[in-house]
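Risk register update: the risk of archive-format incompatibility is retired. Evidence:
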Amino acid sequence: MRFRRNARVEAEIPNSSMSDIAFLLLIFFMVTTAFAARKGIDFRLPAPAKDEQEIEEKELKAITIQVLASGRLVIDGSPRNVSDIQPYIKPVLAVDPKKFVIIQMDMDATYGNMMEVLDELKLAEVQNIALPSKQEMTSW
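Archived output:
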């Protein structure tokens, strides 16, 4: 009797249970994943109105620092030096710590002049600094 040998053995990966394994992995990850609860938008309601106190116009205005091409400064209309920034601003910030400071740079002023002013404002602990663009300055 002659037995016929199958000389070719084909390599085959059994994939009959692949879908079962994928389904079990999907269930495992869905069960073990912690979903974060979606939070709403954080917002603050406006503060209740005070007893209709009149706010002085001076309190509303921001401090304006103009840096000229020569490196000189004009702070709120009066000529000053860079070293005069802190003594001028600190008493104003003591009254209103959120007071805005607007720096208006001349087109011919150097970058170093602006950095000196920003350094002095940082030392004075100014929180709100505005650097208007060329278009914004022309619209004033």
